[in-house]
């Protein structure tokens, strides 16, 4: 596998360890679930917002709030995957997944199962060209267009264009364009991904690997 692009603007790290984790966060309004990979990037495998047993997050709760153990909010895994796949660290507030109430009167929790997969992780200021070896194709775990630090892609940029480090826009467009292909080119620009933070100079972060056909 090899990558071809402008070296000045792209930073690559290859990660080699795989592990599987499960995190449970009780559904208080201020609670934040934290997912992280010491090595590798996050790939969410399953997620439940609701209740599947009468013990989890049940301490001090009356039995009637724990009785429904077949409570699950549809679409929870899609929310987690969109926000977290391809990242080393992901924090998500319970409020984000609580789009509706699947079981009124039941005290709920968020349970997420994820795997830390080996991946190449790139940050691209301009254009990314990925080419795999013969017999291999691209698989994108996740991508994010925005800005999460002040140093990446900051050369000759005024401070006003790099100070917003809370600009994050997860996108499936890289996976849609590149998955299953031997090579792929994509431009890191507002015309492709939209503008999640006007006035901020943005870059594209992509986590991907190569797989055999």
Rg, please?
Answer: 19 Å
Distance between the termini: 13 Å
The amount of helix comes to 10-25%
Instruction: Please tally the β strands and state the result.
Output: 13
What topology, given as strand order, has the largest sheet?
Answer: 2-9-13-11
- The helix-and-strand class reads mainly beta
Order of helices and strands: EEEEEEHEHEEEEHEHE
Please tell me the overall pLDDT: 87
Low-confidence stretches: 1-17
Overall, the morphology is globular
Summarize the structure in words.
It comes from Dicentrarchus labrax (European seabass). It holds the Pfam family SUEL_Lectin. The protein is mostly beta strands and 213 residues long. The protein is built from 4 helices and 13 strands. The protein has helices spanning 76-84, 94-97, 173-178, 190-193; strands at 2-4, 11-14, 19-26, 32-36, 41-51, 71-72, 89-93, 109-117, 120-124, 127-131, 136-146, 183-187, 203-212. Strands 2-9-13-11 form a 4-stranded antiparallel β-sheet. The chain has a 4-stranded antiparallel β-sheet with strand order 3-8-5-6. The two termini are 13 Å apart.
Which features would summarize this protein structure in a list?
SUEL-type lectin domain-containing protein; 4 helices; 213 residues; Lectin_gal-bd_sf; Lectin_gal-bd_dom; repeat; four-stranded antiparallel beta sheet; mainly beta
């Amino acid at each position: 596998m090899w990558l071809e692009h402008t070296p000045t603007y792209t930073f690559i790290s290859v990660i080699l360890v795989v592990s599987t984790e499960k995190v449970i966060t009780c559904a208080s309004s201020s609670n934040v679930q934290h997912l992280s990979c010491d090595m590798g990037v996050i790939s969410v495998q399953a997620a439940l917002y609701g209740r599947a047993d009468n013990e989890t997050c049940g301490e001090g709760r009356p039995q009637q709030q724990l009785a429904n153990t077949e409570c699950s909010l549809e679409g929870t895994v899609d929310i987690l995957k969109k926000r977290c796949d391809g990242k080393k660290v992901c924090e998500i507030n319970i409020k984000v997944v609580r789009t509706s109430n699947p079981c009124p009167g039941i005290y709920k929790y968020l349970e997420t199962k994820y795997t830390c997969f080996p991946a190449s992780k790139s940050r691209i200021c301009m254009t990314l060209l990925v080419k795999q070896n013969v017999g291999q194709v691209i698989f994108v775990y996740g991508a994010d267009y925005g800005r999460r630090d002040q140093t990446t892609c900051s050369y000759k940029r005024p401070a006003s264009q790099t100070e917003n480090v809370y600009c994050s826009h997860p996108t499936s467009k890289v996976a849609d364009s590149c998955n299953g292909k031997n090579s792929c080119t994509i431009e890191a620009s507002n015309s492709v991904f939209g503008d999640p933070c006007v006035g901020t100079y943005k870059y594209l972060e992509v986590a991907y690997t190569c797989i055999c056909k």
